[in-house]
Design goal:
Number of strands: 0
CATH superfamily: Leucine-rich Repeat Variant
Number of domains: 1
Number of helices: 6
Helix content: over 70%
Shape: globular
Structural class: mainly alpha
CATH topology: Leucine-rich Repeat Variant
Length: 95
């Protein structure tokens, strides 16, 4: 269901709400489920065309990182934030 809600054909409101929901339920689902179901979706969310989806992704990262552990955080999340930081046209990331 999460994969369907995060599809590009869905409205950005649904994608944004799904990202926030992921952050809220991560602690209940545990590390194994989060790593297998949510982590593969993160690069697409971080590069979503809609700012609000990317913002929701950034907000939910704290909760998700505390569940997926340091190895997955370093492997996926840090590389995503580095790529976002390097986008020179997104000025508010640097502020």
């Amino acid at each position: 269901m999460v994969r369907k809600c995060l599809g590009k054909e869905e409205t950005y409101d649904l994608r944004m709400d799904t990202v926030m929901l992921i952050g809220r339920v991560a602690s209940f689902l545990g590390q194994e489920v989060c790593v297998s179901e949510f982590v593969p979706q993160l690069p697409a969310l971080a590069s979503d065309a809609m700012f609000h989806v990317r913002k929701s992704f950034a907000i939910c990262c704290k909760d998700l990182c505390s569940v997926i552990g340091p190895a997955s955080t370093e492997e996926v999340i840090v590389s995503i934030f580095y790529r976002v930081y390097m986008y020179k046209y997104i000025w508010f990331v640097h502020e």
